[in-house]
Amino acid sequence: MSLLEARELSVRIGSHQVVENAQVVVNEGEVVGLIGPNGAGKSSLLRALVGLSEHKGQVFLAGEDAKGLSPRMRALRFAYLPQEREVNWPVSVETVVGLGRSPHHTGPAAMSDSDRRAIDAALAEMDLTHLRERQVQTLSGGERARTLTARALAQEAPLVIADEPTAALDPAHQIGLMETFRRLAKTRQGALLCLHDLGLAARWCDRIIVMKKGRIVAEGSPARVMTAGLLSEVYGVSAFVDADACGPLVLPTGLASASAS
Amino acid sequence: MSSRAPSYPVLIGGLTVLSILLFAASLLIGPAAIGFWDSLAALIAGEGEAATLVMREIRLPRAILGFMIGATLGLSGAVLQGLLRNPLADPGLLGISASASLGAVIAIYTGLSAAFALALPLSALLGAVLAVLAVQALAGAHGGNLTLILAGVAVSSLAAALTSLALNLSPNPFAALEIVFWMLGSLQDRAMTHVVLAAPFMLLGWAMLAGLGRSLDALTLGEDAAASLGVNLRRVRLLAVFGTASAVGAATSVAGAIGFIGLVVPHLLRPLVGGRPSRLLLASALAGGAVLLAADVATRVLAPGRDLKLGVLTAIVGAPFFLWLIYRTRRAML
Fold first, then answer.
1. Tens-place pLDDT, residues A27-60
2. Which of B85, B221, B223 to probe the A interface (max A CBs under 10 A)?
3. Of A70, A84, B131, B137, whose CB neighbour count within 10 A is largest?
4. What does the buried/exposed string (b/e) look like for B130-168 if buried means 16 or more CB atoms within 10 Å of the residue's CB?
5. Would you say residue B56 lies in a domain?
6. Is residue B1, in this structure, part of any structural domain at all?
7. Number of domains within chain B
8. pLDDT tens track for A143-160
């Protein structure tokens, strides 16, 4: 079953058509990568999918029209990690991660055992257990990013929609995070990730959606979509594309020459 | 460095005890020298004699208003700082206090307040109501924080300008003096009728603000993340704006504009509650009440017979504190 399905999604910001007629599906057990150059409309597409911006077209969450769902019901169906890593007050790592549990409560109820388990698991998953008491504002950028990702994981929604979740992470934590999403996929959860690291996208995603100038220009398995030709056309870069036993390898090597584009 | 703060129940318990002690101090300290036990006896069991009158008609309403107004300022300051995610937000930001003041000034200017006593607070309440409607209309139903702040600034400026106009055109120096004195903010000579008038609006405002804790917690992560966590931002903004208007409008209508408590109290307490906006609400309300009671007692102790105005005292203590706050914020940003 599809966790998320968007039909004919269009977003205008002022007079700019930033997303045009996009169709997006994320199925159970799938990690989908959304790639494209700056300004392609990736974040605008994600914001529309999660209901944060005005848009045309329909969005279905597990088969139900998102328009008919209350904000809390939506929060139980997906967790969204915005691009901005905003934390305003001097709160602890554990407090931030605990905010992921708020959709599971209607009143000011105390934390339940399942809340504590979810928070502990998310902290462990993001390698933050030793930092749980620390104030978020004293953390490094990467640690803060991991804290906010842990918040999204603690929400325990069937789908995670994340805008550049690997940005600011070191290679070990990038790979750790992608493995986390793969593990979620094994338990029939899903993930839709906007990524700039083509190597990570190629190696860890089941399916790639490529955007350019507000339109989806290609979609399919990494091996099929992420060809040197397409990367040159979409990003204007030349790339080394190969595969090993574990999957595809993509490494941008330089700017594509004017004649190649 | 997070677990050095007292636990939440200890903090709330401590602030409650402090509030009760200051409430008692406010009842027991005053120009009429009445002994400790005599004043208690007069308050509870007395009938008709002067001490009973002083306790019931002068000191009790003053103490009740002191606590309620302080709590209103602390609570609404905490809510607005959480909503706008800005430690420098305060209840005056939305133009409510300035407009309530304008309403009061008009009542004095026109002589209505001399004709009947409650005309002043009623006119101030009307000013607050008109201000919040104007701010909400200017900011729009879907307006964001920036439009809300700009609308508040615009309404504030207009109200301040009209207040100046009233002073400018004031028919006689006594009216001008009365206006100026009223605007300084005071709890002197407030009667039970003031409590009866203002308390329901303050309680209504508290009820609207008190439930916002979880939403404000989620707003710690910004508006997009909060919305994705199930927070209905529009509802939160409406409750915060109208709750503040009701409570602060009523507070200003009986006591004049009292500054800095709504700004400083939440800021002081924030480290003690681990930065969590939800825990700041009750703590700021209690501490705001305690601070205002303390300031009101101080006006009586520091300058007995000189009628030191409450708003002047809070500003004299509050402004240097504000400077220190800016200094510290700047240093933290370096």
1. 999 999 999 999 999 999 999 999 999 999 999 9
2. B221
3. B131
4. bbbebbbebbeeebebeebbebbeebbebbeebbeebee
5. yes
6. no
7. 1
8. 999 999 999 999 999 999
- Whether B2 is in a domain gets the answer no
| A133 interaction partners in chain B (CB closer than 8 Å) | 2-3
Chain B hits for A75, Cβ within 8 Å: 228-230
Q: Domain of residue B154: give its range.
A: 8-333
Could you say which residues from 28 to 47 on chain B have a Cβ atom under 8 Å away from some Cβ of chain A? none
* A47: contact with B, CB 8 A cutoff: yes
Strand order in the sheet with A207-212: A78-81, A159-163, A190-194, A31-35, A207-212, A215-220
Q: What is the spatial distance between Cα A210 and Cα A44, in angstroms, rounded to a whole number?
A: 14
**Crossing angle, helix B119-139 and helix B192-210, to 10 degrees?**
20
Q: What is the DSSP string of B217-245?
A: HHHTT-HHHHHHTT--HHHHHHHHHHHHH
pTM: 0.90
Residue B61 belongs to a domain with what CATH number? 1.10.3470.10
Compute CA distances B72 → A148, B185, B194, B285, B311, whole Å: 33, 15, 15, 6, 15
Q: Residue type for B57, please?
A: E
Residue B3 is assigned to a structural domain of this protein: no
